[in-house]
């Protein structure tokens, strides 16, 4: 009942800094996979389109685990107060298939707000070509770096998005709290904290055989604790052979680190944006996660006007990949809530008088 | 040597709030006048394109005084280290010709950041259709509300703009300083300060004859202190006859106040954005101006990384309309400086190492 189509569009242009690309005028590409509901939607339930954004180093296929299960809701649509129209999984510019297409044009800097502009570009593209998409409501779902993108996209274009589910978003840094001036003790950036070098030691992008690459991803990499079915989807979309015969990941080590390094310039912008966001936001937190400073969750709940928080017991920072069933349950329940709220007659907005 | 062309394009979509328009899907229009250099540019001087944004209640034609004099520089190009490619004067969505086209679709709210998106839309439109524009460097020049737009446009798309001249920009409010929490004493919005009602009493948009309208604008309105040639350009682009025979200003009183009222939602966003702007900004201040809180100027100089300030002696908040020769002199001198800096060989950017 859902068709699947690989799409390639131009990424947002211009990028945020001169060093974002090698050639300033050349357009980066954005690859995404669109699953589109092909049945007839003849009831009055709201149509929801889901746009998924992966974390640093991952790719669109980590969401396949979710897509497979969410597709089934189409057969049970009487049980739910919504219909899923399209589901879109994006490979962000240096990741997955986009990373392969862009490899000769990616620069040494990546400001994450460009990722938010790319998400907006995808939605605008779909709206201009797909009537069903135009009628639908857009729900952004993003993890970690992808959680940042989802929130910042709502800051940039609030009317495009009817709900945001942000899972362990990286959008708060103790050292970059704009309300704390001068910087508190321990002020540091990812660049000078030693974290980037530690990450660099854990990343590998050259292998002699496919088996070696797969084994490394499965057993040694940051990704090894992922739920096994989900991990296999990720790996099968990530390992490719280079022209010289060697095997590699679609994201290069250099671009993987460039994306991490974007933290320093991006997180303060994210922190400063949240006070202006009035969209509905669900903030999903891993109960045992330590990647984000512990203040993150209160900061978001306090500053996002219309937000809720839900904690996944025992969840780590990669909870959507390690405990996908728990996160899927949360997503389904949030979509149900969103479906009901969109079915309510629109309140007669009291137009403010001058 | 310069052609003049009236252009109409779709304004940025989506707008910032549901109440920005009556029909959410309908596109607002944006009218602008483009003066394009038609001679051959065969030296190696940088081409500068100037994009002018007017203040609340004004229209594109207040810049005619400037355009007329800046055009003459084309005959004296040996004296200047730049060539002016195009000059664009915009009627923002509720103003001038745009206001007339949009009158049945404008809503009850206007967030000024939409004006910044519209400026970006104009530049992107010109870049896609005009090769000379593509090669040029874009200089934003904006007054008051238009000064806000120019600064915020640089926050949204830093690489599109090579210089910003912001004259008495409204981008700081004592009551909305995000670093001061809780709000300091005297916390108030334009809506509750009484200022909006006072402004409402000073605005009129219905007249029995053309002469009555012109006389009111010339002698009674906020605009009466404008330099006389400049005032006549403004008036001749502003007074029109309605289908019912009455005469009116192109901006309606309601939309004039809606734009003022946008202050409350927009200024905090502007204040929060400036810390991230690395573009060159020249901040022109009226030496006797009282519209902005006196802290505005220090706030901008401190927070805009690459900014300069210049004070016009005896200037009020409407200094570009009251003392246009003084402001013109500042603009010419800044363009000269920009021309020289763009002629310098581009420094070999040290690409940051991971």
Automatic annotation (TrEMBL), chains A, B:
GO molecular function, a single term: triacylglycerol lipase activity
Classification via InterPro entries: AB_hydrolase_1, AB_hydrolase_fold, Carboxylesterase_BioH
Gene Ontology BP annotations: triglyceride catabolic process
Gene3D superfamilies according to UniProt: alpha/beta hydrolase (3.40.50.1820)
Start and end residues of each AB hydrolase-1 domain: 50-328
Superkingdom to which the source organism belongs: Eukaryota
GO cellular component: peroxisomal matrix
Annotated protein name in UniProt: Oleic acid-inducible, peroxisomal matrix localized lipase
Organism in which the protein naturally occurs: Komagataella phaffii (strain GS115 / ATCC 20864) (Yeast)
UniProt lineage: Eukaryota, Fungi, Dikarya, Ascomycota, Saccharomycotina
